Amino acid sequence: MSSYPVDRLIFAPDDVDLARSPLAGHLDAETYILGAFNPGLTRLPNGNLLAMVRIAEALREPIRDGRVHAIRWEAEGNPPAGHVAARGSGQYRLDAWPLDLADTADPRKFLLRGGGWRIMALTSLSWLLPVELSPDGLRIEEVHYDRAIAPTASFQCYGVEDARISRVGDQWLMTTCSVSPERHSTTLYTSSDGLDWRFADIVLDHQNKDMLIFEGLVGGQYWAQTRPLGDLYFAYPPGSEWRAGPSINLATSPDARHWKPWPAPGIRPHANTVATARIGGGTPPILTDRGWLSLWHGVEPKEIVGIYRTYWSILDRDDPSRTIATEHRPLLEASADLTRPIEHQLYVRDVVFTTGIADGDEGGSAPGHYIVASGEADLACRITHIPKQVFA
């Protein structure tokens, strides 16, 4: 059981109306919601919260006739690569791959054999659904299907994933991961009200799953956490406190569009715990009395997916490359109690992936806590009220 006063699932696959999906009526195949998870979170001007939920829509029968199928968006006509289409000016197609070329052990994706490097396709296509919540995050007020964000360009043909939302001044900034054979890029959307979003640009061109823009400027600059991916990492010297592998880097920008890597490293995995053998960003850093509060995930290797837990660090307010406090005990772990009512829909376990945070004091609810939004088991949205004293 959770030790927090409020910890519950707030949105799950059965809460999604498939008839209002961007894919509805476009495929000659039945789909279902594999997951409604990894919600970006922000406070709206009316005091409510907005959860930008990743909806992974999958084929009910991906394997048939000796082939495994994937969903792909394609622009109408023959536009140049990277062209951003008008809303609705594309179509969804099914691609079929010979089953003997595919490794389908992971329910989220399949690997294609025969190339000189790793090539994969997804078992679902993701789009983003704005779900408006009550100020405390515990009640669904409205689901904004008319404002859903779906692929509109060839660099998003396999979907738009894992929104992270930051408010900086009077502007809302949302980073997302856009997936395609062209690139695995970070894309930026902007809003003047936190509800109506407009595509801005590709802001990182390399594989980067977790770009989080700080909720405030540092020295007049935008700052962000990034997490570049790769297949090769150089070793730290024997006895180092750090473990080689994915780490949370930093970047700065004058305008939130053009980013330069920061020379000093950010948050690195510690060598003395296997629970953080792989790490990545979680929530956009927010400013507290101690410095920038950053929630991030650590992964302990286990079977195919691993065990995902949430951890926290405090970064120096003037130099975020300086970590001034870190807690090695997990802040959040996956909860079998929470997912028991939807046990029949589980396809992975041991995963909590925290993606959003809001100040509970601003919502008129019980003061003294943060409202933390997470994806639970790559299946549903979890809301946890965490007392601020935890980070004191």
Automatic annotation (TrEMBL):
Signal peptide: none
Molecular function (Gene Ontology), one example: glycosyltransferase activity
Alphabetized InterPro entries for the sequence: Glyco_hydro_beta-prop_sf (IPR023296), Mannoside_phosphorylase (IPR007184)
Gene3D superfamilies: Glycosyl hydrolase domain, family 43
Pfam (any one): Glyco_hydro_130
KW Glycosyltransferase (keyword) present: yes
This protein's UniProt keywords: Glycosidase, Glycosyltransferase, Hydrolase, Transferase
Family, per entry: Belongs to the glycosyl hydrolase 130 family.
Name of this chain's protein: Glycosidase
